[in-house]
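Figure S4 source data
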Amino acid sequence: MFKGFYTVATGMIAQQRKTEILTNNMANANTPGFKADQSTIRSFPDLLLSAIGDTNIPTEKGLNIRNHDPIGALNTGVYLQETLANYTQGSIYETSLTTDFALINGTMPIDQESGQTGTVFFRLEHPEDGEAYTRNGNFTLDGRGYLVNSQGLYVLSNTGQRIQLQDDNFQLSQDGNIYVNNQQVATLGISFSANPDELLKQDNGLFRTVDGENLPTAYGQEGVTFAMQQSYLEGSNVDSAQSMTDLLTAYRAFEANQKVLQAYDKSMDKAVNEIGRV
């Protein structure tokens, strides 16, 4: 009986966590460059049950042979195994702001070990040392003319330097070069991740490496092609209709587990207050 309580509780916890992930995805459906989270639910290792007994052999010595008959597997519940971001390209839309950049994937190699397709990111200077990465190209100029993101993190050039401009009267070419009065002043920093599943997803659409090491530059990487478009942004890759369907499914699964838990509770109530009284 108590095993049933634990099994149902694990199902409710897993569905609650899945609901939180889907809700966060839908809340960021209009966030530029947002990558939707995907969850995987799996069961705990199964227990193989067998009935153990004795078989009497009618002999003079009365031999007993122990035997066991397989009953089947018993599952002990489920859990949310991991949460991974979906790095597929979001839709591109125009903003008419010269400080908005859209990063467009071209051909990306597939990692031989993980089978994951690589992707590229804008390079940002992280305040805690090292670099952070994002697909959100909604940039602006701060009071000193430095190109920053919406959290005030400096956008880095391909050489790892901050990009300073006099005003927003500049041009960004598709290959990442920034021009002022037809003179190249910097190359926008773009980094490449061969296996983006190994990155840590943080708040505000930022990604960082697990070990704190910087990702390699995407320029000159074999098999990597990409382009940039000024005055455009990459939208979120959240599928709102599918997310709503998955949210309702998770809610119904949570509700079903809840009803089973209530049934267990009623059975325990009868066992304690009625059967026990007899």
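Figure S5 source data
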Amino acid sequence: MPHLSKQEIEMVRKVKSKQNEAEIMEKENVVGLGIGLKIKDGKLTDRPALVTYVTRKKSVDVLAGKDVIPETVDGVETDVIEISMPTVQKSIQNSELLRTLPSNELSSRMRPVKGGWSVGHPDITAGTAGAVVFRKDEENIAHYYILSNNHVLANSNDATIGDPILQPGSVDGGSAPDDQVATLSKFIPIDLTPDKREEDHDNLVDAAIAEGSLQELDREVYWSGYVKGWLKKEDVEVGMLIKKTGRTTGYTTAEILSVDATIDVNFGNNRVARFRDQILATSFSQGGDSGSLVTDLDNRAVGLLFAGSPEVTILNQIEHVRTLLDIEFL
């Protein structure tokens, strides 16, 4: 299976400098730029590429000269992939695009809560409980948390620490106080300010945790098993096979397309946030799968699913999630 070596990734990363990235991200329809492999005839080749992601692929003949992606940048091949506009993947009530599982599956009430099941802040529809994680306090006492996205547990920055977290999410019938399973403990704020050109306005994660009692939380991820550690970002490879269990699409697998990706994501209400150092994979999620923990086939955590389009799924690097939330899986 084609993959990029660490040396090849570093070579492309140097080309994906701030100057080159800024210039490409300003071009028409461009929403992302990542490090990947050239795709030919729908299949990954073994050639490193600077991959540009666009909402709509247009012929060179109809683009202004300034908006054309060159065939190479500083000696590295480029590729242009159409992915529509990525959006966060909480469930959309009454949407024809939302596939709801039977009521006795991942959208139903589950105690103890496992990774993969419907969860959410009362003011959102529903997302996915990624996994149960823990951290120790100053007295070395372990506290246990549901890991998911900010936009699932903290309503895209609009929640308050201590707010109830429901399982299942409200669109699946959950309501307080009967279905409260945890309380919001920490979230990493998402910068939704309009000036996306400045690095200070970029985001690394869409992540949050909610504390619950050990009796109501289970460290197992449904259909996948127990998490067995995590991968540093330099060990996440293009071409790697990954898997997840999510509220809407259940257990699915995918292949990593790009790493070190800068990508714009629509949070609704004309709010677009820019994320950097992201993982892009082939599409294996839909609305309601936000918050799913993504692992490799050996159950090592790779990323936290938060957004996507019909063509791709977008993940936060798990190393950033772990560091910023100060959590552990084992």
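Confidence is low (pLDDT under 50) at residues 94-98. Residues 6-82 form one domain.
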